[in-house]
Amino acid sequence: MSLNDPLANALSLILTDERAGRKESKIMPSSKIVEKVLDVMKNNNYVGDFEEIKGRGGNSIKLNLLGNINKCGVIKPRYSVKKGDFERFEERYLLARGMGILIISTPLGIITHKESKKKNMGGKLLAYCY
Question: How far apart are CA 121 and CA 114, in angstroms?
Fold first, then answer.
């Protein structure tokens, strides 16, 4: 199976398993970006613990689902955002003010838009979740 965007596939699979009411999801293949995004989602209580499983066909991630995701997905193209421009993207991708997170790649790593505002820095939009 050929994959162009592992992050998009991972979030799509999580959303499908979440809507089907499953308690866990197996994401394959794993990548560092997928792991970092899952880490941010875990810190914000959207998903539970996860572990990387090494295998012959590539590594996979076993993820515990909490049932807290209504919608999640990648943001394409990966827009550059300046520190003051988050408002526009919050309106576009999130349900309501203060509800959900935008996941951003910054020089400090992958963080939420809320942390990015506090640290007064911009970055590239990767994904959203609410």
Answer: 10
128 and 72 Cβ atoms separated by less than 8 Å: yes
Confidence band of 121 (pLDDT split at 50, 70, 90): very high
pTM: 0.92
Query: Could you tell me the CATH number of the domain that includes residue 81?
Result: 3.30.1490.10
Question: Is 79 inside any structural domain?
Answer: yes
Q: How confident is the model at residue 56 (pLDDT cuts 50, 70, 90)?
A: confident
pLDDT at 98 over 60: yes
Cβ neighbors of 60 (< 8 A, separation 6 or more) are 26, 27, 28, 29, 30, 52, 53
